[in-house]
Amino acid sequence: MQNLPGPLKEVVEQLSSLPGIGPKSALRIALTLLKMPRERAGGVGQAIIDLRERLCLCEDCACLAESSPCAICGDATRDTGQLCLVPEWDALLAMEEMGVYRGKYLVLGGLLSPLDGVDPGQLEIDRLRRRLATGDFEEMILALGATLDAEATASYVKNLVESEFPDVSVTRLAQGIPIGAEVKFMDKETLKQSLVHRQKM
């Protein structure tokens, strides 16, 4: 990659810094963009800029949205007694695709990971406290996955809720999700069974 012209090398380096894209894939993408008509390539670039400028975090659930509150938080038909805690926005999408859960969400913004330096202050713990302090929720469902980081996060959140909001029951997705897996990678049926057969912690 060292012999690439400067502008092409810059695009390849930028693309290959993204998760799941290696240098060869980045080069293929860059060459595809280079072959596109100028207007279409400009459209791709503008869409990336718009992604940053037109999306915001919902003030209630911290999910990505075009406005705040988001469509889910603003939906009066959803069950206001249930709050589903997910690590990232893509896990929320996986839950919604299932079409079974009709409660509210909160996107935690990651998982506790001492080895990676992720502590409670870097997650949406304060937002979680504010949501639970409204007194609207009777149940909080932990949909965090079954990794070691997810287990540590679940334990932390469970202890927090039990000590500060004892009237809120804490449940978790049933252990149909294999150890080491993440919610966003589960097939719909496994995710559905895990939600339907969730267990009290």
UniProtKB/TrEMBL annotation:
Domain of life: Bacteria
Protein name: Recombination protein RecR
Keywords, alphabetical: DNA damage, DNA recombination, DNA repair, Metal-binding, Zinc, Zinc-finger
InterPro entries assigned to the protein according to its UniProt record, in alphabetical order: DNA_Rcmb_RecR, Rcmb_RecR, Rcmb_RecR_Znf, TOPRIM_dom, TOPRIM_RecR
PROSITE patterns: RECR (PS01300), TOPRIM (PS50880)
Matches recorded under PANTHER family: RECOMBINATION PROTEIN RECR
Function: May play a role in DNA repair. It seems to be involved in an RecBC-independent recombinational process of DNA repair. It may act with RecF and RecO.
Pfam families documented for this protein: RecR_C, RecR_HhH, Toprim_4
Toprim domain location: 81-178
NCBIfam families the UniProt entry points to: recR
Span of zinc fingers (C4-type): 58-73
Family stated for the protein in its record: Belongs to the RecR family.
Organism in which the protein naturally occurs: Pseudodesulfovibrio karagichevae
